[in-house]
Amino acid sequence: MLKTSELIKVFRTEGVETTALNNVSIDIAEGEFVAIMGPSGCGKSTLLNILGLLDNPSEGEYLFMNTEVSKLKEKQRTSLRKGNVGFVFQSFNLIDELTVYENVELPLLYLGKTASDRKKMVMDVLERMNIAHRRNHFPQQLSGGQQQRVAIARAVVSKPKLILADELTGNLDSANGEEVMSLLTEQNQQGTTIIMVTHSPSDAEKAHRIIHLFDGQVVTENIKK
Amino acid sequence: MIKNYLVTAYRNILRGKGYSLINVVGLAIGVISAILVLLFVTDELSYDKHYKDNDRVYRLISHFTIGNNDDLFAVTSASLAPVLQQEHPEIEDYARFVAVDNFYLNIEGKEFYEEDFYYADSSAFRIFSHKFLAGNPENALVKPYSVVLTESVAKKLFGNQNAIGQSMRGMMNEPFTVTGVIEDLPNNTHFKYKALVSVATVVERIGRERFRDYSPPTFWNVNVISYIKLKEGSNLSGIQMGFPDFYERHMSSIGEQINASFKLIIQPLADCHFSTIKNLQGDFPVGSKANIYIFSVIALFILSIACINYMNMATARAAKRAREVGIRKVVGSQRSKLVGQFLSESVLLSILATAVALFATWLILPGFNALAEKQLTFSNLLEPQLIGIIVGITILVGLVSGSYPAFYLSSFRPLLVLKGNSGSAKGHVGLRKALVVFQFAISITMIIATIIVSWQQHYIKTKDLGYKADNLVIVPGLDSAVSNHIDAFKLELLSNPAIESVAGSTSTMGLDNAKIVCRIEQDGEMKDIAINLLFCDHDYLNTLGLELAQGRNFDKTNAGDAKTAFLINETAAKVWGWTDNPLGKRVQFGLNLDGTVDRDGSVVGVVKDFHYTSIHNPVEPFLFILMDFPPRILNVRVKDNTRKEAVEFLEQSWHKFNATRLFNYNYLDQRLAELYSAEQKMGILFRLFSLLTIFISCLGLLGLSSFVTEQKNKEIGIRKVLGGASGSIVYLISKEFIGLVLLANLFAWPVAYWGMARWLQDFSYRIDFGLSPFYIQTLLSFVVASIIALIIAVITVGGLAWKATQANPVDAIKYE
Prior knowledge:
Chain A is of the alpha/beta class. Chain A has seven helices and eleven strands.
């Protein structure tokens, strides 16, 4: 699905250089559920952003669906991301001015789907996320768990091959967290590749493989038996 | 996708109601200004275009050269147009008009004195097409004593009765008949008449032979407004090239005798309203192209400021949209789509602002019409061309104001903004500051211009005219029963203590005068020269409050004065080279073709200069000639606060002397004020537009400072907790904006100076303005304008900041 080779990411701000990723090489197969763990500042989110084509590495190679993407410009990355990658964030990142339905519909608008297709796909995923009854509500009117379900719905509505989740249960209580993790697992069982950054060992347990990062390097990989 | 944009835009507008309101109001004011100026300019440029074949109609203008002096008149001789047509087949038709002051009509015992009545050729309606409500344009002015009335005059004279066929009696009991009624002339007509009387009436009075006298002398007597109409496909070249020959055959014999020459100027009808022919005497009030440019520029300024407000507010509040931009990019939006989204929002806001502007225009149009002396209607906006322009302005305003925010907001990197870092605190602040400076530079320029314009107008209004116009009652069109007994009448009037003095004349000071070729002594010879003059009696100088600089007034005890005494003004003495000793210099009036003169005398007195015409015209040489015939006009000086009593007594005396004419009067100061009323109203409009400019600049400043105050809420709370005084906190927030306003002066001052110097140079009499020589008032007006702008900015920003300092600091910190 995706493969990185000696990925390096260096941030330069006002003369200070920070190496966030240092020769990271990973290979993730299609349909895999991978958790990335590590202490704060170890480079987990940086790695996730590069894998999700939100950022470019400073050095190294990145093959995404057999395409070398490490040097792509933003326009090209956006094009590739559209329809292929879904994101779920810790802080949900829903647009407050749009209803639940409109938030979930957004990726399909950018994919140029027709109105009837959009309606079918959105309602289908809202039903699956058990949030269809709140489709005309605004994010501010929902609980944290409900908002995260909407975020997941948005991430999966275009049937992407890859979902990237960054601490998706970080702002939820345990019950909601469980619920959200089970939705994610369900997606994976349907064939979607999932890469999840988490601090939670219990969330990480749901994954097939756990990659531990420390100081921007892969230190261990645990494969679930 | 568009629906998503519009829904997002709509909800964003509702979310930030206060800022949205500021944006909508600001943009609406800009669009209102644009619409009003558009209506004004369209109207100004549409003058006379409603006439059929208007592109083939021309006005004839007389250009005399007498000695070294040029005089241009908007009238010609009665002979010119018909003879031109005889010799030039490309002239399809012509029409002549002669003004009649105070046209007297008696309708079944009711008397009327009507203005704007003209004698006209029967071809008048072939030159100026009108919609006839009754009657036939082909024959309405053919017979003698035929009168065609405009609708409102017909209503005034005959009420709801059918005016056609109605009889009226003239001053000499002539039997006039109404033969036509036309629609009132629209406001956008340079030549506005209220009724036309057939020229056949004049023929009936003076005889066909005399009327059709086209001998050389007749070409030199100009008193007729003449228009020609060319045949389709023709041009003026034949007439223009052939005129020297025409002059040679018809006019040169007299020209040589009086040392004068004549040129014909043929002015297209389209150019009449904005006539740029300088010193054209007897012209109708002309429009001002300068006003069109000035108001167009002001509207552009206001629109620019409104757009800048939007840009500044949108970029300042970028952080509130940053997250949305990041999310949209993450889920697949390209930058171009985001640009499209934000431009849709600004266009939507612009459409909303235009809707508000159209409604507001409908409300304020009557008031605007009163100020601009127009008859604009809201339905004018429904013309396809104007609809297109308004739609264009709406979209352009939306695109321009939204352009910078769209590109700025769409440039946010998703990674940064989703972490909560929009960069708006640092990036693009420089551009925002520049926009504030630009806004206030425009406002300060407008304030300076308003001060200078008001100052100049006040100067014009209060300038010493050289005579006393107040408390002067003018009685025009004296009945012969009065004028033939003028001395007795004057005595009768002076018996009333309310009346100070009475004098007769042939024209009204400040409003009209004759200009006739006379002969003056220069360098040992007598030279012909056209001179402004009026006839008056011995009491004229005293009654008008004119002062002598040298010599004496006309002397009642000196019978010789009637034939030999002349008075001149100081300018005449200067221009004619008589500054050393003007008294006794020879003057001749009434030059006859046989070489004789009616009066041959000398200067007995020099009157201090006075404005015998509008203050916009320079003072030229002027001649007073003593009347030895009954006056046409009576000038009555009344005591302060006795106008009503004096006029009543005047009227009683009028009837006592068995005058049959209707007693008619007016106040000179009011009539003079009317001369400048159009200008005064333009000045008010200008001040209003300036106020609008300043208002929306403040609106922008309010929005920005409100946002900054909101941003600094936490800082304000912390400073207060740590003991900061409110004043120092207000200063902290305000100083940046105040600094920008002060910087704006650097740009405003040179622009304002250049603009005002340019505008003032068109005035013959103007305020002391300039740097070389230096006038302190110039600097003062600029400083005052800057102080006003600063005060406005301080109040706007400081007020908000002060309000923020009064809030409970705990609230600010708690929610952080």
